């Protein structure tokens, strides 16, 4: 698996905070981590950002987007927090380090954005829990499987489809 260390980190974080369950409340999870979440009205090309300033961590998301997109955006920003904030200088002349989730983030062209996306997918859709849910399903239709899993994990069908594909499931 290409991002095994990211899968392991997401599992570790969920288990340490007792949130290792399908469709968990990500906003309660973030509150438990003492991270402030602030909804904002952004332009359509910005989904969210992570800002760290003087030890205070803030995640903001575009309140105009759908609930599944908001969950993924917030999880993506958590990816930056857990994977990238400790490895880079956070401040330059007291200016906070800000990482945005925008249209470029979705293309996968930038390594840290691909990693944050992988973290978000692993956090919201842990591999072990997906396998458990697939084993419970009495369904052979791929689109119905994707739909049921997406509902269970509170993600979009597109996110679930990508996740299953990245885990090696054939969706045809």
Automatic annotation (TrEMBL):
Residues 31-165 form the IrrE N-terminal-like domain. This is IrrE N-terminal-like domain-containing protein.
């Amino acid at each position: 698996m290409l991002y095994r260390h990211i899968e392991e980190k997401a599992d570790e974080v969920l288990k340490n905070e007792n949130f290792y369950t399908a469709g968990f409340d990500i906003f309660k999870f973030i509150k438990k981590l003492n991270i402030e979440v602030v909804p904002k009205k952004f332009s359509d090309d910005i989904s969210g950002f992570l800002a760290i300033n003087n030890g205070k961590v803030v995640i903001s998301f575009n309140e105009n987007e759908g609930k599944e997109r908001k969950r993924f955006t917030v999880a993506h920003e958590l990816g930056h927090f857990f994977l990238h904030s400790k490895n880079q200088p956070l401040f330059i002349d007291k200016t906070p380090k800000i990482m945005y989730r925008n249209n470029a983030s979705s293309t996968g062209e930038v390594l840290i954005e691909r990693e944050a996306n992988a973290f978000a997918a692993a956090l919201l859709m842990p591999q072990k829990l997906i396998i458990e849910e697939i084993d419970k399903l009495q369904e052979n239709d791929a689109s119905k499987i994707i739909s049921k899993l997406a509902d269970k994990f509170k993600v979009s069908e597109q996110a679930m489809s990508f996740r299953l594909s990245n885990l090696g499931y054939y969706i045809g």
